[in-house]
Design goal:
The chain has 176 residues and is an alpha/beta fold. The strands form 3 sheets. It has a 5-stranded mixed sheet with strand order 5-4-3-8-9. Strands 1-2 form a two-stranded antiparallel ribbon. Strand 8 and strand 9 form a beta hairpin.
Length: 176
C-alpha cells in the first residue's frame, strides 16, 4: 500500500504548479464505517489510488510530519476542520491529509477530531510520495499543501521552516 515510485531508485522530482499530478501515487487508509466509529475499533486498511482518483476531482491535499503531534494537531489540522465547508464551497471534492503514520493511527486521529468522511486521513506509506517530490522532514512527510484540479496541480507549496504558512488553510483558500 504505497506509491509505485521508488525514491531509492529515482532522484526526487519536485512538483510545480501547472504540471500534471504524478502517475502511480497510492496512499492507504481505513475508510470510515459506522461499525468502526469508536476510537478503539479498527477497520481494515485499503489502498487508495490517488493518481487515478484525482484525475476527475478537485482535491486539497495537505501533508503533516505526524498525527497527534503538537504542530500538526494544534496549528495545522484545525484550520482545515474549521473551514472545510468554505473549502468545499469552492468546488473541492476531497480534502485529504497525509502523514507517514500507519493507517490505524491516521484513522484514530480522524476519530479523535470527530471527523468521519469530511476529510480523509491517509498514510503516505514509507513516505514514498513525499520522498519522490523531495518534501520530507527527515524520515517523515514534510509540511506542505497541494491543490489538484482534475489531475492538474494548481497550487503546490512546501513550508520553508517550521511554521504553518504556505501549507495552512488561509493560503490554500486564497489559492482556490
Amino acid at each position: 500500500m504505497s506509491t509505485t515510485t521508488s525514491p531509492e531508485l529515482a532522484a526526487p522530482t519536485p512538483i510545480k504548479t501547472g504540471e500534471k499530478f504524478p502517475d502511480g501515487v497510492k496512499f492507504s487508509y481505513v475508510p470510515y464505517t459506522p461499525e468502526n466509529e469508536a476510537l478503539t475499533s479498527c477497520g481494515m486498511p485499503q489502498e487508495y489510488n490517488a493518481s487515478q482518483d484525482f484525475a476527475d476531482k478537485k482535491v486539497v491535499l495537505f501533508a503533516v510530519p505526524g498525527a497527534f503531534t503538537p504542530g500538526c494537531s494544534i496549528r495545522h489540522l484545525p484550520g482545515f476542520i474549521e473551514h472545510q465547508s468554505e473549502i468545499k464551497s469552492k468546488g473541492v471534492d476531497l480534502i485529504i491529509v497525509i502523514a507517514f503514520n500507519d493507517p490505524w493511527v491516521m484513522s484514530a486521529w480522524a476519530k479523535a477530531n470527530n471527523i468521519k468522511e469530511e476529510i480523509l486521513f491517509m498514510t503516505d506509506s514509507d513516505t514514498r510520495f513525499s520522498k519522490s517530490i523531495g518534501w520530507t522532514k527527515g524520515d517523515r512527510a514534510g509540511r506542505y499543501a497541494i491543490v489538484i484540479d482534475h489531475g492538474k496541480i494548481t497550487y503546490a507549496e512546501n513550508e520553508p521552516g517550521g511554521d504553518v504558512t504556505v501549507s495552512g488553510v488561509e493560503a490554500v483558500l486564497k489559492a482556490l
